[in-house]
Amino acid sequence: MTRILRIDASARTVRSLSRKLGDRFIADWSALNGPADVTLRDVGKTPPPIISDDWIAAVFSQEMTPEQQALTRISDEFIAELAEAEMIVITTPMYNYGMPAALKAWFDQVVRINKTFTFDLARGDRPLEPILPGKPVVALTSCGEFGFGPGELNEGGDNLVPHLRFASRYLGMSDFHHVGIEYQEFGDARHERSAAEANRAVRDLAARLSQQPVRAAV
Ligand SMILES: Cc1cc2nc3c(=O)[nH]c(=O)nc-3n(C[C@H](O)[C@H](O)[C@H](O)COP(=O)(O)O)c2cc1C
């Protein structure tokens, strides 16, 4: 049974296209590999706390006080979920050309010194090194506009997928995959086409990933 950590980030709990893509991927994966063991972390419904001065002091302290332990408990929980996962599925809308604040808050809670990365200036210009073992990260997105590619109408506006791809290295990413729906705000034939293509792409992705061995978690 594949252990999948699923992060849902849409504030919409019904009618969410990104959540539907997530359901599609899990169903397609399970059809090919048998039922998956899915841990759902719904940050859209329950946004994680924003990190604070006290939180930063806690994670950099040599030995935590009981108060600091309490302050970092949710971060510990999120990181334990990450460490146990063999695959990570993130479903998310684009909000204001980037990720929803709730998802960013989750990243801020899990990218943590000596838990998900080490820091050593002896490594030169790349002092940060991820700790967790490699696993595929699947990002399933939805946005209202369209054309964020090179030379297209909204080139430069996509600060969602590049951010997810880059930050995912600290989740222990081995490979990154993205499928997205566009044109949601137009609700026209282009949107219908985009949604249909995304469903097909999700099915193909599930099939492709089924061919590669899933790496064991820690
Ligand atoms: C607060 C908010 C901000 C949004 N910002 C953008 C945006 O910057 N660019 C865009 O293409 N769509 C934007 N949208 C549209 C959503 O990305 C789109 O509705 C998407 O389908 C939402 O994901 P969901 O269906 O999973 O809830 C925004 C929607 C909301 C509610």
Structural class: alpha/beta
Task: Describe the sheet with the most strands.
Answer: 5 strands, parallel
Number of domains: 1
Order of helices and strands: EHEHHHEHEEEHEH
Overall CATH class: Alpha Beta
Can you walk me through this structure?
The structure is a single chain. The protein has 218 residues and is of the alpha/beta class. It contains seven helices and seven strands, in the order βαβαααβαβββαβα. It has a single domain (3-210), classed as 3-Layer(aba) Sandwich (Rossmann fold). It is 38% helix and 19% strand. Strands 2-1-3-6-7 form a five-stranded parallel beta sheet, sandwiched between helices. α6 links the parallel β6 and β7. The longest helix is centred in the C-terminal third of the chain and has 23 residues, at 189-211. It starts with a strand and ends in a 7-residue tail after the last helix. The relative contact order is 0.18. The protein binds flavin mononucleotide. Flavin mononucleotide binds at residues 10, 12, 16-19, 93-97, 142-145, 184-185.
List the helices and strands and how they pair.
Layout (H helix, E strand, L loop, with lengths): L2 E6 L8 H17 L3 E6 L10 H8 L5 H6 L1 H12 L2 E7 L7 H10 L6 E3 L8 E3 L4 E8 L18 H7 L5 E9 L7 H23 L7
Parallel strand pairs: 1-2, 1-3, 3-6, 6-7
Antiparallel strand pairs: 4-5
Helix pairs in contact: 1-7
The protein binds flavin mononucleotide.
The site of flavin mononucleotide has 17 residues, from helix 1.
